[in-house]
Amino acid sequence: MRYKNAKMLVYLTSILGILLTVLFALRGILLP
Amino acid sequence: MPTNYRTQRTLWIILFLLLVFTPLGVLLTGPEPTASRSIWVDISVGLGFVGLALMALQFMLTARLKWVKRPFGSDLIYHFHRQISIAAFFMIIAHPLILFILDARYLRLLNLISAPWRARAGVSSVILLILVVLSSEYRKKIKLPYGFWKFWHGILTTIVVATALVHIFLAGIYVSPENPIIYALWVVYSAVFIALLSYTRIIYPLKLMRNKFEVSGLKQERGESWTLSLRPKNSKPMRFQPGQFAWITAWKTPFSDTEHPFSFSSSAENVDTIDFTIKELGKFTATIKDLKVGQDIYVDGPFGAFSMDRYPDTERLIFIAGGIGITPLMSMLNTMVDRGDKRPVKLFYNNRDWDSLTFREEIEALQKKLDLEIIYTLEVPPEKWKGEVGYMTREILRKYLPEEWVQSGSHIFMCGPQIMMDIIEKQCLQEGFQHEQIHFERFDFV
Questions:
Q1: Is A17 in contact with B17 (Cβ distance < 8 A)?
Q2: For B317-362, how does the pLDDT look when each residue is reduced to its tens digit (9 = 90+)?
Q3: Are B396 and B385 in contact (CB under 8 A)?
Q4: For helices B39-62 and B74-102, what crossing angle results, to 10°?
Q5: Do B25 and A18 touch (CB under 8 A)?
Q6: Cα–Cα dist B171/B186, whole Å
Q7: What's the rounded Cα separation, in Å, for the pair B115 and A13?
Q8: Distance of CA B398 to the CA centre of its chain
């Protein structure tokens, strides 16, 4: 269970990292 | 699980995510760089920033900071370190790959002779990172000795992060004095990185050298194992929870970075002398029998979350040992004797044969002092053996665990070969145990 939770945190960090990167790249369009 | 560990874990995870994403988050709100850049260049740069922040944070995870490891357990921290490093690796490697696909002229930067220093630093960092990841993933397959790998892993990863930091400062597009907040942030990250490195490589080994232990006894056990007894030489006794482990350095100083993890096998209630029972399985463990009484030993610990003390509400204890995996459980049993703990215990002890059962006589003797039932399962039983034969199975569990043992007050602690624990964990879940009731110690986490 502990190991599964650790894996979930790896996925969460990776997904958040990619989303934030895309937001960073598109900040000129998406952000005011 | 005591609530304070849960709260600490939550706070550490929030801090971890903040540290990973703050650099990119700050860039989002800051001014756009003056140079005209495509979306794909920014994706490449963004992934690089997240990957580098993740990589630098690995030094916090793997530094010997007990307050970081205590809420999680070292095995989990190393498991996470391995997995998140692979995620960071793909993000970092994507940074140059996207640039190469975008414009083939970037490939010229691979020429370390003609490339500018910012590219030299970046390319060196990525090449060394590839080497680090491959050597870690395939260490066992290519039979790299653990001590050799560990030494170079420490050095190479330091160069990887240091050169990557040099790269972002020299590139100067986002991290430049014109963006003071992001510039200051990366200066702080670099300073923390240097501080952690100094602590791990200089201050901590010095601390260990000042707190020496010495060999007070060495006893041969069944199953090609040795019990190494240590007493503090010029340090305070080491308090630990039964089931935990410590890193031991013998023959060399702590600066050599060649320590090995071993579980305590003695009682946590008697710490004037601490015991580690070690099976001869490799190059280092084969030298244990050559240690001399009075010889200096450096002990770094305690570490680990595998302990019955972390679950004080437990009413019934189920211990499952495979081979030398008996050691942390032996510590729990010895501690229970010293505490006069009368909670019922069922010990399933799986081993190859009767003669190589480590602590056989000691465990038999404990039956008189504890409410302890022992169930041996032997792969190669002696003649006229009436006990269980082969590996642990669901049938054996069912046979010896009445229904009341599969209730919330029961906790399972198991230690042994990974494959054994994976199978038994599944069997226990099928029998109705909850994930929260099953705890295991991995010997192969390093």
A1: no
A2: 999 999 999 999 999 999 999 999 999 999 999 999 999 999 999 9
A3: no
A4: 160
A5: no
A6: 13
A7: 33
A8: 32
User: Phi and psi dihedrals of B232, rounded to 5?
Assistant: -65, 135
| Yes or no, beta carbons of A28 and B76 under 8 Å apart | no
Indicate the residue type of B339.
R
The pLDDT tens digits for A1-32 are 677 888 999 999 999 999 999 998 888 777 66
Strand, coil or helix: B264: strand
**What is d(CA B98, CA B109) in angstroms, rounded to the nearest whole number?**
14
- For B269-278, b where at least 16 C-beta lie within 10 A, e where not — what string? eebeebbbbb
Within B218-366, where are the H helices? 326-339, 360-366
B186's enclosing H/E stretch is helix B180-198
Map tokens 């482990």 to a residue. B245
What is the DSSP pairing of strand B260-263 with strand B213-221? unpaired
Q: Is the peptide bond before B302 cis (omega within 30 degrees of 0)?
A: yes
Tokens of B114: 């003609």
C-alpha distances (whole Å) from B299 to each of B104, B355, B405 are: 53, 31, 37
Residues 6+ away with beta carbon under 8 Å from B200? B59, B62, B63, B64
Task: Give ipTM to 2 decimals.
Answer: 0.93
Joined together, the tokens standing for residue B246 give 């410590």
Orientation of helix B39-62 relative to helix B180-198, angle to 10°:
30
> What are B413's strand-pairing partners?
B319, B439
Cβ–Cβ pairs < 8 A, chains A and B:
73
